[in-house]
Amino acid sequence: MRIRKTIFDDGFQAYLTEGATVVGDAEIPMMMDLDNVQVPKDMIPFGKASKCKNKRKYVHFYMHDKEFSRVLTGTKKYLDLLKTFDGVISPDCSMMIGQSKCLQQANTYMNRAVGFYLQKHGVPVIPNIRWSDETSFDYCFLGVHKERMVSISTHGCIETKGQREMFKIGLGAMMEILRPPVVLVHGSMPDDIFSEYLGQADFHRYASQIERAHKKEGA
After folding, report:
1. 86, 87, 111, 135: most buried, per Cβ within 10 A?
2. Torsions phi, psi of 172, nearest 5?
3. What CA–CA distance (Å, rounded) separates 42 from 182?
4. Pairwise CA distance, residues 147 & 180, whole Å
5. Are 141 and 161 in contact (CB under 8 A)?
6. Nearest-angstrom CA–CA distance, 97 and 71
7. Are 149 and 182 in contact (CB under 8 A)?
8. CA distances from 97 to 15, 20, 62, 79, 167 (A)
9. Cα–Cα distance measured from residue 63 to residue 208, given in angstroms and rounded to the nearest whole number
10. Which tens digit of pLDDT belongs to each residue from 62-88?
């Protein structure tokens, strides 16, 4: 794996990766290997963070990209807010089958870049792992240290048979390459996707906002 210091301004908010190393041909920023995260007591979407009184949660970005794009382009503005919570899950920038390779690599870059910047400023960050199909495996797992806690989301990713099959393939690749001892799952955990991996790590499931809304309506 090729590793070197970032010494260029590529227009992708260069201050985010100041002091970081980049890895692989895609030159993805490497997040820090810090032992300052915990299994979240709960998660809250970024869009609700500013009005949330209970800060004993991790802020996540499992939502449409347009709802958190301002964090990618102005991360400094939200640092004080994010610092008030237990931690953050790094941004879930879209990775979709058929999406151009350069865009998927850029989205992986921003996931890690924002994560690194927040870490550097004292925010506990759990890496979010996102893939599309097998062609993304060359770079979608870069920038994350092995044998560390990671987070994933099934929300909107397993709606069709093809999506379910590809998600399971990606999950298997993640487990083999990163070997995480703890996996956080935002959304459902169908047995046909997760059952064979449950013995390989400690899985923790967190309901999506849609699930929570439906539960509240039925209460």
Report:
1. 111
2. -60, -40
3. 15
4. 4
5. no
6. 24
7. yes
8. 30, 29, 18, 32, 11
9. 10
10. 999 999 999 999 999 999 999 999 999
